[in-house]
Amino acid sequence: MVLLSLATAFAALFLFIKNLTVTLERNEKSIGTVTFKKKTVQRKFLDRAVWDRPVQHSPVYNGDTIRTAGAAEAKVFLSDNNVIDIGSDTMIQIFVKDNEEAEIGLKEGAVSVQTSNTKIKINSNNASVVVKENSLLHADKADTENLRLVVETGEAAVSEQTADENIAAGQNTKTLQKDSVFQSGTEAAITMISPSQNVKILNQNTERSSVNVLFKWQTSLPENEELILETASVSDFSQNNRKFSVTGLNEISIEQPDGNVYWKLYPKKQIGRQALSAQGKFTVLPAPVPLLLIPAKESKYFYKNTPPSVRFLWKGNESAASYLLEIADNPDMVNPKFTKSVNMESLAVSALNDGIWYWRVTPYYLTAKETDVLSSEVFSFKIEKRSTLPEPEALFPKTVADTASSKSLTFSWKTVEEAKKYRMIISDNENMSNPIIDTVTADNYLELKEAAKLLPNGTYYWTVLGTDEKGAVLTESKPRSFKTLDTEVTLRSVFPPDGYIIADTLCRDTRFTWKTNLTSEQHFQVSDTEDFSNIVKDIKTFNTGVDGIELKTGTWYWRVISSAENFPIKTETKKVIIAPPFEKPQLVNIGADKRIIILQNRLNKFKWTEVKGADYYQIKIKKPGLEKDVLYENLFITETEIELDFKDIADGPYIVSIQGFASATLSSSRRYGLAEDSEIFLRHLKPVELLSPVDNARINGVEAMLNPGKLIWASSEKPENANLLVTKTGSKEPVLSLNNPGFTVKLPPLEAGKYTWRVTASTIEGLDISSEKNFEFTVLPIPPLQAVKFISPKENAVLNAAFFKENRTIDFSWNAIEEATVYLVEIYTSNKKSKPVYSSKIGADGKKEILLKFRELALLSRGSFYIEVRAQRHLKDGKLFQDGIVSMLKFEINLPKRNNVETNETGVLYGK
Q1: Other Cβ atoms within 10 Å of 391 Cβ, number
Q2: Which residues is 701 bridged to in the sheet?
Q3: pLDDT above 90 for 758
Q4: What is the 3 state secondary structure string of 827-876?
Q5: Measured between alpha carbons, how far is 549 from 906 in angstroms, rounded to an integer?
Q6: Helix (H, G, I), strand (E, B), or coil: what is residue 672?
């Protein structure tokens, strides 16, 4: 009974899990596909109440509802090439109308819509937005009342719906251009346009782990409000915290490292104003381009009957969701013959014929547009059909096979691409007419157990035939001889290994060694041919090594031969290369006059040509004729350049000596190169110095217009062909450009903005002494004039019959603003939208108090009125220079209502 209960429980659990993870499909045309990076994504059909969990690239059907869990990411690719990014905790419904344009119902959460050649419509309770072609829009719906739309690129049209408005009729429609923000409900004082909330930014730079991020925002705060942009790597801003003052700006580009980046933008005077700040998070993903591994560049494949199956292998990155493998017959990858999207980093392709092919891999990210993604390098490979395939290359055994102590003997060879089986034959003669062993295997090796019984001491020959499934011979190796030795005899070369490179000067110091248990005489032999048809050295010895060998530069072969019990054995032949010195490196950044200019606070870079084979360099600097007096040396430089500080070295001629070296490795001795001695002449030169305004100076906007400052610069050298240039950010034309100016130049009146200035100059000899860097300064916006303070009447004053009995005017007075030249006055009723009942312009008279005696009492009636006063500053030419903040005062006219006059009956008038 217990077992039955457990079985029932497990069956129920299995069915529950199966139902939980089921993916449904329909027998109708899909409108797109959905992909996701992590966490849970669910989908519900229009006519179903059941949610399913789609797999990667699942179809999306008309009317589907898609929702994401917390921290989930999803992306819908519509058939019209439009893309919908779905944020976490978001639910949308997608329809495609008869005109094939998509319509999204955003119920909650956040989406980003990237359109191509068709529009997308987003409906959300009280608003509807049409995203135009080739546009990017971010929509964030916090609740039923609050909706925020940000147009990052392109254009959108938004319509708000009220109880008596018809959206379909196009009423109350507003067009949003690039960088526009639309808000309904509670409006934020600061809105970040980019980066959007939780956006993933790809860092495809393989050289550094950071990327430039453009912060762009919109704010309703005053222009002179001091704003702070703060970034960090954790949400409490305690790690990698950086602060930037962005007052007067609406965008800034900041280098950000890989990983999560938290940001907040807020006014510096934040006390009691938390609602004015904006904050968010984005992630910089390391996404280096794929590294192609197999087939390697310019690799070759051969076949005889059946084209080979080519395995493609690359190294991707963790940020990629999948990869697109493309194979084309041209290096420009136009009209590829094979394309396939895969989730792995390898794929075998067998549909390629002979010819030269080109391939590349493009990663696919859920967080980026296809146009923003970088593909890998393009590699080529060749498939060649041959009448005969390359013969199997023998690997083991070598010339002597040890079969003592009942050892096994393994024969192995390199695989042949097209061969399905191998036939191995061993014979006691070279023409293979007396086979001792003739067997077939599917592997590229064969092991003989107790080989001494099958192959007693003697000389044998073996060959391998590659065959197809039916046994037809595709290729055959030449017979290869080997000797079996059923005794414990050892004769094995040790050093140098095969292919070892020896510097020519170290040849005599190199000891050739081998290992043997023989006591008989051995011959150490060196030849310039691999078959030893021309032996140049034959040294007899009873030792296990020789040295003092002198060989010219070139390729040589060496071996050791011995005779044991009338059984001649020898070591395998090994190649050794006697190498000449490396070539001289050449300085590449030195002019014909060999002159090097030393600039203040700047390092001088020496660059030289790379020496093939060298892995490090030595550099020495000395005075001519004083070889032992080295002023500077660095004996280990792995790059082909170095930066040196010459600030303390005297002007004059010097010798720079550069030499390439290579450290000893398993395949080479240490090596050296020829030294290159180059004469140079050092001269200190100071660049032009920019004095005022200093870099990043902030200049008062009023002063910049009324009392422009001066540009001051200096030079210790006599400048020739100097040019002073002042430019303004965002303006194509220079603000100021002077040739051969004085050291003090008066600036013209400047408007608010960011400016850059520099001086380019050269000496009489034509040497560049331009300023080391461009200086920047910011002219701040002209602040508004202060609001006036009313002196009389008091706020909410009531002017009744008693007042007008004593006064025939209303005296309005306020404090004077020091810079104001005129005051604009308006009086209007409580309905401000109506035309003012009175308007006037009052000039400043130099007094501390401004008085307006209002005599036009007939313009007023019983009720509430408002008076507004705005101070303004005009220049002598009448141009408005500085506007002011409006001050408003409310007052009330309270006169008794007039009664209707009643008269007595007049009776019949005279004459009637």
Answers
A1: 18
A2: none
A3: yes
A4: EEECCCCCCCCEEEEEECCCCCEEEEEECCHHHCCCEEEEEEEEEEEECC
A5: 156
A6: strand
310 within 8 A of 301, measured Cβ to Cβ: yes
Residue 592 has pLDDT above 80, yes or no: no
Q: Which domains does the chain have, with CATH numbers?
A: 28-187 (2.60.120.1440), 194-283 (2.60.40), 291-385 (2.60.40.10), 394-485 (2.60.40.10), 493-579 (2.60.40.10), 595-685 (2.60.40.10), 689-779 (2.60.40.10), 790-894 (2.60.40.10)
Query: Residue 4 — very low, low, confident or very high, per pLDDT cuts 50/70/90?
Result: low
Q: Are 443 and 413 in contact (CB under 8 A)?
A: no
Assigned token pair, 873: 């500053």
pLDDT for the residue numbered 904: 59
What does the mean pLDDT of the chain come to?
84
Spatial distance between the Cα atoms of 20 and 571, rounded to a whole number of angstroms? 69
Which token pair is 60? 């999306």
Among 47-61, 497-511, 558-572, the range scoring the smallest mean pLDDT is 558-572
Per DSSP bridges, beta strands 156-160 and 147-153 are unpaired
Distance (Å, whole) CA 72 – CA 39: 5
Sign of the Cα torsion 720, 721, 724, 728 reads negative
Q: What is the CA radius of gyration of the chain?
A: 44
d(CA 85, CA 77): 9
Q: Contact at 8 Å (CB) between 562 and 522?
A: yes
Cβ neighbours for 219, distance < 8 A, ≥ 6 positions apart:
189, 190, 191, 225, 227, 250
Query: Which range (53-57, 379-383, 614-618, 744-748) has the least confidence?
Result: 53-57
Residues facing 774 on adjacent strands? none
Closest to 758 in 3D by CA, of 725, 736, 728: 725
- The pTM score is 0.43
901 falls in which pLDDT band (50, 70, 90)? low
Mean pLDDT over 371-385 rounds to: 87
602-606: average pLDDT: 83
Confidence at residue 360, expressed as pLDDT on a 0 to 100 scale: 95
